[in-house]
Write a structure and sequence with these properties.
The complex is a heterotetramer of chains A (207), B (270), C (204) and D (270). With 204 residues, chain C is an all-alpha fold. Chain C contains six helices and no strands. In chain C, 54% of the residues are buried. Chain D has a domain of 159 residues: Rossmann fold (3-Layer(aba) Sandwich), CATH 3.40.50. About 2% of the residues of chain D have low confidence. Classes of the chains: A mainly alpha (207), B alpha/beta (270), C mainly alpha (204), D alpha/beta (270). The interface between A and C is large, with 118 and 117 residues.
Chain lengths: 207, 270, 204, 270
């Protein structure tokens, strides 16, 4: 029973949305949008609470065990301080909530993102070695593209940007197409298996 | 002190290269691409006092790349005497957009309410875009700081996209697509975009089909735009660093291979 | 300099220290980032989704249909207790079922069919000569699809075609890697710009 | 929003079926029939050889390595996905297999995610796997944890876990965005064996460069089928191959047709 009912709901919603995809009727479009947008967002919003409770629990347990106390405390304070600020001063314009967001969260997120520049450099150093035919092709393609994208490329030879454009528009795009076609097929069969109920891992499986 | 590993040298090298090239403050001479020129001409050719809608459709993490672009566009618009309505379709872009508009408005002595208004964020972007096509005051009854729409002289004559000369979407992802597919396709308002470099190829097809009127992208685009505006800015300052960083990555690939072949030869000999 | 810039500058440096190695300063910044961002999402979800999308239309505009997602959302709270956890399977079934239902036609259309049609271009140029570039595209798409063929071992001519496919894949990977480098560097340059000009006031 | 909907409602009786989507419907029906036929027909479920996928064989090895070294296994599905995405479902299938192994070997399995819904489902999946392996007492719900929904907050959190817990093996399977290389390089520095797989075409290049094994696009879906060991699921992989042959025949025919009859366009689906 605990598996049958979700299974049936899953199949019903699957069929409905499959059919809705093919309709332009206002009622159908409306229903489509309601389920995909409102339902999804609302369920997510409630589940977020479940996630946050679990996060706080994990951190408090670690705090009790005495592992790295200050870090866990900082995380938990962070979780509570934002709603607190929002409740007291609101979340518009120059509110403290936005101040924390802009001066604490944003710069840190942007910096974690910026770490990528360094990882790109170290990955380039380590990952592009001409070990095999495949690796050499990977290396050559990357080098030609990099050269063409920096001003140096056109200084060495006028043809470099042209070659690079050709590679991007033909052989590279061909592979991308095949990858996308494959992903389309893989998604299709996976979704179908879920709908007809052969795929039940999300229910914990039942072998 | 722990022993430094090869990756530390790689990191350090990149850091030094970028630091030096930025401190040098050299302006690399750059060619303005036709794309950027088209964007510039578009804003430049609008009659003075045109109302433009600027939408901040990006996340906070993209700010380093997006900010120089956004600043150039805002500065150009204010310089030409256009009036700006700011909105945001991504929650994270909201506060950033507000700040950027305030900052540039200050530079050109523009008055909030008369020359610019910031309406803020609306969730569900498709619905928001469509609903503004019917009525902007009903979509945004209040501005970002909660003051009523009717309070601002700029908005007196703005009811929907018919009263707006164009929409400029500042984006790091695919949100511009929705402006094209809904605001442009349905309400025929010209859409232009300032986007992160990674997204440029995604929007190329829309440029060639004319659905996207003009586009400027990446730090390079910002640098070109600054050149057209004849102002110094972080885009132009960053260009030398950008080119050097590219060369550095090329050097790393080559160095990696040298190390690899040296080691392999050694192994073969022994 | 305002307090915001100072704090932002210090936190930026704190994150960058990770490049040397993990350290208490980075750990503190990381914990703060995780905590604050969770708090931020909680607030944004409350105001944009729970209030604007559900409670306001439900109670002030009388959109009673919104009771359905409200109940589905509440069922997720079943996860708070081991005994009621099965209740959460219902909203999850709605999400997964709907996702699968849309994915079948949407993925087939956007990923497979559109890519198939886009590949079709004449392999003969107007002057009757073969169009090399289009031949390359055809060869690339077909050999790469052969690489993805699972129910036959990669041996003989079939195996050779699949290997050919891997060459095309490598060209694609090399190209995309190089293409994204530019954006990644811009991000770091933007951060340096903030550090050097706003925070340390070294450049202008 | 409301306005838009009322406007739509006023449009007189729009047909229920959108004719422009007929080609998609026909192809979907063909595809569905083929998949269902191969899945349920006994004949097609009989043995057929399947080719090796390098990343798959490595899974066993990776868990074995973690067990020997008495270090954890880290598994994360990326920031780009949600539970509605088929890729996430495929990833959770692989997770279920891996969890069964880690249960048997008494190896610590960590699963950080950015999405609370994925967390909830993953907890069920892993619990069930541990029960199936007969070691439910080894299951710790807290190991399947929500970190934060912020993209780079998530990246920082996983980066921190990898650096501190030094997992011997890392699985990056799902939909990834820009965080891909942050995680892959951090894993590399920590010396972990890394198996990645994603449907995000751009991120694949980073995984190819930085990870030991990469499941490319469709291979990720196929892998989830292989591991299940279920004949009917494996049969649907066979269906994918049949569809591929049809696609190739379609394209070759259309290309030849296009070369000799330039005005035809029956292969365009829109």
């Amino acid at each position: 029973m605990t598996r049958k009912i979700p299974q049936i709901i899953c199949a019903l919603f699957g069929m409905t949305l499959f059919l809705l995809y093919f309709s332009q009727h206002p009622t159908a479009r409306n229903l489509n949008l309601t389920i995909l947008n409102d339902y999804f967002q609302i369920i997510f919003a409630f589940t977020l609470l479940v996630g946050v409770v679990s996060f706080v629990k994990v951190n408090l347990k670690a705090f009790e065990r005495g592992e790295d106390r200050s870090y866990h405390l900082v995380s938990v304070i962070g979780v509570f301080i934002m709603p607190l600020l929002a409740i007291i001063w609101g979340i518009k314009g120059d509110s403290p909530f936005m101040w924390v967001f802009e001066n604490i969260q944003v710069p840190m997120q942007a910096t974690v993102f910026a770490l990528l520049a360094f990882f790109v450099a170290s990955a380039s150093f380590r990952g592009f070695r001409a070990r095999s035919v495949q690796a050499t092709i990977l290396l050559a393609a990357a080098l030609i593209m990099l050269l063409s994208r920096s001003t140096i490329g056109d200084m060495i030879a006028d043809q470099i940007p042209q070659i690079a454009d050709w590679i991007r528009n033909y052989p590279s795009m061909a592979a991308r197409r095949a990858i996308l076609i494959g992903i389309g097929l893989g998604s299709l069969t996976t979704s179908l298996r879920v709908m007809v109920g052969i795929e039940r891992t999300w229910l914990g499986g039942d072998k | 002190m722990k022993k430094l590993e090869s990756r530390h040298y790689v990191f350090l090298g990149l850091f030094v290269v970028i630091l030096l090239t930025m401190l040098l403050n050299v302006r690399l001479e750059i060619r303005v691409s036709p794309e950027t020129q088209k964007m510039y001409n578009y804003i430049d050719s609008l009659p003075e006092g045109s109302v433009l809608m600027v939408s901040f459709d990006h996340e906070a993490s993209a700010v380093p790349e997006i900010k120089p672009l956004a600043l150039s566009i805002l500065r150009h618009a204010f310089k030409k005497g256009h009036k700006l309505i700011g909105v945001s379709l991504l929650a994270e872009g909201t506060g950033i957009g507000y700040r950027l508009m305030q900052e540039t408005a200050g530079e050109y002595n523009k008055v909030y309410g008369r020359d610019l208004v910031y309406l803020g964020f609306k969730p569900q972007y498709i619905a928001a875009i469509l609903s503004m096509g019917e009525s902007i005051p009903e979509t945004f009854p209040e501005d970002y700081l909660g003051r009523p729409y009717t309070q601002f002289p700029l908005l007196d004559s703005v009811k929907n996209y018919d009263n707006v000369a164009g929409v400029i979407s500042i984006a790091d992802g695919s949100l511009t697509t929705h402006w094209i597919e809904y605001a442009h396709a349905r309400y025929h308002v010209p859409v232009t975009a300032a986007v992160a470099a990674v997204m440029m190829t995604t929007y190329d097809p829309y440029i060639s089909s004319g659905q996207l009127h003009a586009m400027v992208g990446g730090l390079r685009g910002a640098a070109e735009y600054e050149k057209l505006l004849k102002i110094g800015g972080s885009g132009r300052r960053g260009m030398l660093a950008q080119t050097s960083a590219h060369l550095y990555v090329i050097a790393m690939i080559i160095a990696g291979n040298i190390v690899y072949f040296l080691r392999r030869n050694k192994r073969v000999k022994s | 300099m305002d307090a915001g810039t100072v704090i932002a500058g210090i936190l930026t440096l704190a994150i960058l220290t990770f490049l040397y190695r993990d350290n208490p300063v980075y750990k503190l910044a990381e914990s703060l980032l995780i905590g604050v961002s969770i708090g931020y999402f909680l607030v944004i979800n409350w105001s944009n989704t729970i209030m604007d999308l559900m409670f306001v239309p439900l109670f002030t505009q009388g959109k009673l249909m919104l009771i359905i997602p409200l109940i589905l959302g509440l069922l997720m709270f079943g996860r708070f207790n081991r005994k009621t956890t099965v209740l959460s399977r219902i909203p999850i079934a709605v999400l997964i079922g709907s996702g699968a239902g849309v994915a079948i036609p949407a993925m087939l259309d956007a990923r497979t069919l559109q890519q198939m049609s886009a590949t079709v271009t004449p392999i003969l140029a107007p002057d009757g000569l073969p169009n090399i570039s289009e031949l390359v595209v055809m060869a690339g798409v077909i050999t790469t699809l052969i690489y993805f063929y699972f129910s036959r071992e990669h041996r003989g001519w079939w195996g050779k075609s699949a290997t050919m496919g891997t060459y095309f894949l490598m060209i694609f990977f090399g190209t995309t890697f190089a293409y994204t480098v530019m954006s990644r560097m811009s991000t770091f340059i933007g951060r340096m710009e903030f550090l050097l000009s706003d925070f340390l006031k070294l450049t202008q | 929003m409301l306005l838009y909907l009322t406007k739509l409602a006023l449009v007189p009786a729009v047909a229920w079926f959108d004719v422009s989507k007929l080609p998609v419907l026909i192809s979907a029906v063909i595809a569905v029939v083929i998949v269902l036929y191969t899945t349920y027909s006994r004949k097609s479920r009989e043995r057929f050889k399947i080719r090796e996928i390098a990343g798959l064989k490595a899974i066993e090895e990776a868990i074995g390595r973690a067990t020997e070294m008495a270090l954890p296994v880290l598994y994360t599905p990326g920031w780009g996905g949600d539970i509605q995405r088929p890729t996430t479902i495929a990833s959770l299938n692989i997770l279920s297999h891996i969890a069964e192994k880690t249960a048997q070997y008494n190896c610590h399995l960590l699963f950080p995610t950015h999405d609370p819904v994925i967390m909830s489902v993953a907890q069920e999946v892993v619990r069930e796997s541990y029960a199936r392996a007969g070691f439910i007492d080894r299951f710790k719900e807290d190991d399947i944890r929500y970190v934060t929904s912020s993209q780079f907050g998530y990246a920082a959190a996983v980066e921190g876990l990898i650096t501190r817990l030094k997992p011997a093996s890392i699985f990056l399977l799902g939909t990834f965005e820009a965080e891909s290389l942050i995680l892959a390089e951090t894993g590399n520095i920590a010396g972990a064996i890394q198996i990645a797989g994603t449907d995000s075409t751009i991120q694949l290049s980073f995984f190819i460069v930085a990870c030991d094994y990469t499941l490319i696009g469709e291979e990720l879906f196929a892998a989830s089928g292989y591991l299940s060991g279920d004949r009917s699921i494996m049969a649907s992989i066979r269906a994918q191959d049949i569809l591929k042959i049809i696609i190739i025949i379609f394209m070759v025919t259309a290309v030849l047709w296009a070369s000799f009859a330039p005005s035809a366009d029956w292969w365009v689906f829109r």
